[in-house]
Amino acid sequence: MKKLLLLVSVIAVFSCEPSKEKADLLVLNANIYTVNDAFEMAEAFAVKNGRFVAVGSTSELKDRYEATEVIDAEGKTLIPGLIDAHCHFYGLGLNQLKVDLMGTKSYEEVLQRVKDFQTANPSNFLQGRGWDQNDWEVKEFPIKEALDKLFPDTPVVLERVDGHAYLVNQKALDLAGITAATKVSGGEIIKKQGKITGVLVDNPMRMIDDIIPALTKQMQIQALKNAEEICLDYGLTTVNDAGLMRSTIELIDSLQQAKELSIRVYAMVSNTPENLDHYLNKGIVKTDQLNVRSVKVYGDGALGSRGAALRAPYSDQPGHFGAMVTPVADIEALANRIAASDYQMNTHAIGDSANIVVMRAYKSALKDKKDRRWKVEHAQVISEEDFDYYEEGIIPSVQPTHATSDMYWAEDRLGETRVKGAYAFKTLLDKAGTVALGTDFPVEQVSPFLTFYAAVARMDISGYPEGGFQMKDALTREETLKGMTIWAAYSNFEEDEKGSIETGKMADFVILSDDIMTVPMEAIPGLQAEHVYLNGEMKK
Questions:
Q1: Is 417 helix (H, G, I), strand (E, B) or coil?
Q2: What angle do helix axes 273-282 and 246-257 make, rounded to 10 degrees?
Q3: Is there a contact between 484 and 451 (Cβ–Cβ < 8 Å)?
Q4: Predicted confidence (pLDDT) per residue in 480-501, tens digit
Q5: 3-state secondary structure of 317
Q6: Does the pLDDT at position 9 exceed 50?
Q7: Are both 367 and 434 inside the same structural domain?
Q8: 247 shares a domain with 179
Q9: Quick check: is 14 in a domain?
């Protein structure tokens, strides 16, 4: 009888021991930057059904959970999945099908790369992207004569690094019907001594776009998959594509639904009548992977091609002010139309003239409307008195590597006084309370670690300039990480589902090669995303 009572007692003790909760993934012994409101650190988290279900200490979560997969991070640094708040994801993929002209140091090098590409990949229509005359010894726009000699019968279209100018040969001009007498507002057909040079800035480029051969569906799919592979390799789990046509958005959606594309896409709808008629009437399109609720509008061109609209003439080209790509009246009408919908308006504005036009249009259209989170994309050159507009709920979406790429010639374009209101990330943050950070790739490199370095150090990877460029507008490391995660998510109306490692949010996270918050500054560009997870599933 005593033996029986003892057996019952033992069974009772074990049956009272709590059973552990089930999880799909348990990460332990990590150095986790949660990026929650308090910017708290953690050691562990559990994931179930693609979401974080608990975040805390290793001992606590080991006692509480058992999981199908357990990762001992061995002290590695983990951060939320990175968000690029302004890029051209589809364009990055398309670039893999073109001549790569990034980093060319002369027009001669451009020509050689085009020749080599044609030899290796014979084509009856040549395209390339990435040249920048500001990187050449002779910092002037090229002239098409050499292209005409090399390719008299093959159209050639070479896009400038910023996407705001083409260099084309005579064959392309002929196909597009462009002559010295052609007039197009909102841009420029560059001429010398009355003759077309082959360089087209902003709106005239559309005439060339009309003659570019259409891509096959398989080429489009491959471009998207190529772009995803590149982005995931750098730890990007969400990309904001700044300008997509309806057909591309629907293709992305179909690939995501078929589980052929994993990355999350915040799609800005390109500003065309057809796109606006469809999406503004349809309303917001939202899945776990796709968010369509904004319209991308071009205010002006780019500073590097002198297409940005300035209030006073360019310091290095007297009498030239740049141009509005979209007329002022059209921006105002668009703002009113979009404000009447649920959509966000995201407007490219680089010059100080374009910026004030956009801010005034926003203020008028959003009168009495709350929490619309409209963005100014780039917000690059702003007059001192205009920064206060950002106190009214407008979000600056900026790209730190633009500052470190442009700093070599920005003062030449703007002058000593005006340049002080350029690339003013800290000033914008102080006024707006938030900044969304991106790269504008493929204008700049994809790497978010270069973004981080440029925002904090304000130097390029060579260490120039010593001490940093206009350091009053540098961001702290904490501000920068927020700008690439939770603030970017907020700018997309997605702060409740991503951007931080918190219970209930999507389990998107990155395991880094080192601690981005403490490594020496010069080590930041060399950091790597060792492993990348979406919904708690490893993608890299």
A1: coil
A2: 50
A3: yes
A4: 999 999 999 999 999 999 999 9
A5: strand
A6: no
A7: yes
A8: no
A9: no
Alpha-carbon distance 388 to 151, whole Å?
Answer: 52
Quick one: how far is CA 149 from the chain centroid? 37
Please write down the long-range contacts of 529-534, taking CB distance under 8 Å and 24 or more positions apart: 529/82, 529/233, 529/234, 529/235, 530/76, 532/81, 532/232, 532/233, 532/235, 532/237, 533/81, 533/507, 533/508, 533/509, 534/81, 534/237, 534/262, 534/263, 534/264, 534/506, 534/507, 534/508
Verify that 304 and 394 share a domain, yes or no.
Answer: yes
Query: Are the beta carbons of 107 and 136 closer than 8 angstroms?
Result: yes
Scanning 54-169, the segments in alpha helix (DSSP H) are 58-64, 89-95, 107-120, 145-150
What HEC string does 235-292 produce?
CEEEEEEEEECHHHHHHHHHHHHCCCCCCEEEEEEECCHHHHHHHHHHCCEECCCEEE
Measured in degrees and rounded to the nearest 5, phi and psi for residue 333 equal -65, -40
Shared domain check, 309 and 168: no
CATH code: domain of residue 429: 3.20.20.140
Contact 77, 230 (CB under 8 A): no
What is the β-pairing status of strands 31-33 and 77-80?
A: parallel
Q: Is residue 16 part of a domain?
A: no
**Cβ neighbour number for residue 136 with a 10 Å cutoff:** 17
Are the C-beta atoms of 238 and 84 separated by less than 8 Å?
Answer: yes
Here the CATH number for the domain that contains residue 184 is: 3.10.310.70
- Contacts (Cβ under 8 Å, ≥6 apart) of 277: none
Give the orientation angle of helix 328-339 with respect to helix 273-282, to 10 degrees: 20
Alpha helix ranges (H) inside 302-380: 328-339, 352-365
With beta carbons less than 8 A apart as the criterion, state whether 329 and 335 touch: no
Q: Which residues contact 371 (CB under 8 A, 6 or more apart)?
A: 393
Q: Which two tokens stand for residue 350?
A: 């680089």
Q: Which residues pair with 71 in a beta bridge?
A: 27
Range of the domain at 364: 83-87+215-538
Q: What is the rounded distance in angstroms from the CA atom of residue 290 to the CA atom of residue 313?
A: 42
Rounded Cα distance, 348 and 354, in Å:
9
- Token representation of residue 88: 């051209």
User: Which residue from 469, 444, 422 is spatially nearest to 525, judged by alpha carbons?
Assistant: 444
pLDDT confidence tier of residue 2, bands split at 50, 70 and 90 = very low
Query: Are 288 and 143 within one domain?
Result: no
Is 372 domain-assigned?
A: yes
**Model's pTM, two decimal places?**
0.89
The tokens of 516 are what? 């981005």
Residues 244 and 323 occupy one common structural domain: yes
Pinpoint the alpha helices (H) of 37-144: 58-64, 89-95, 107-120
Tokens 């010059």 sit on residue: 351
Residue 301, classed as helix, strand or coil, is: coil
**pLDDT per residue over 295-344, tens digit each?**
999 999 999 999 999 999 999 999 999 999 999 999 999 999 999 999 99
The span from the CA of 243 to the CA of 269, in Å, is 5
Are residues 177 and 261 both part of a single domain?
A: no
CA 139 to chain centre: 27
